[in-house]
Amino acid sequence: MHQFCNLKHVKILIVEDEQGLRENMLTYLSEDNNICESCADLATAIIKLAAYQYDFVLLDIGLPDGEGFEILHYLKNEMRNEAVIIISARNSLDDRIKGLNIGADDYLVKPFHLAELKARIVAVFRRKAANSNNNLVFNEIVINLIGRTVFINDVEILLTRKEYDMLLYFIANKGKVIAKTALAEHLWGDEMDMHDNFDFIYSHIKNLRKKILDVTTNDYLKSVYGIGYKFTDK
């Protein structure tokens, strides 16, 4: 994700079945050397998203072959990072709440000025860029590096300082086998000389794993017999 003062060189997918509006958005947003593609239905949008990564999706929710909300479900299930603005003639509070809850970044009601659409896109990009710089994300786990907070499925879990440092270390080395000695040296340093064995690590691992499993069914923390641990979703 880029951080923009002005919108330039962004790859945008426009999903809109109203031909005139779709062509106007395509022309207007292409003027800044953005790469803009468009389609008029749900099926084609899914095909394009499966084939390409975009920075942004402009999404009408009233499409001829289904609800645009399906695109939001698709992006969420695939853990994609595209920013999404819903553009819709439907101005009901229920639709707004539903779209934002599924993962849309903004909701713009038709009719709108193209200049306002561009301003909304720039604002969303800035917000996402600011958030991504401060957050470390692994699936449903979000660690705010400045606030030292951890949220799993939008629920905050309270960790001790060592548990927090351990989780951070595991996610930074996700998929790798971490030896018990390497974990101890990284987190405890000279303090590990005070311990005769690795029992102190086991208790921290057990507590961290329990706190994670209290809010998600995903058991990411795996023991690797005789070696150490691995943090993985495989």
Account of the 3D structure:
- The chain is of the alpha/beta class and 234 residues long.
- It has 2 domains: 11-132, Response regulator (Rossmann fold); 139-231, Orthogonal Bundle (Arc Repressor Mutant, subunit A), CATH 1.10.10.10.
- Helices cover 42% and strands 23% of the residues.
- It has 8 helices and 14 strands.
- It has a 5-stranded parallel sheet with strand order 2-1-3-6-7, sandwiched between helices. Strands 8-9-10-11 form a 4-stranded antiparallel sheet.
- Helix 2 runs parallel beside helix 3 (69-77) and helix 6 (161-172) packs across helix 8 (199-213).
- The protein is elongated and about 75 Å long.
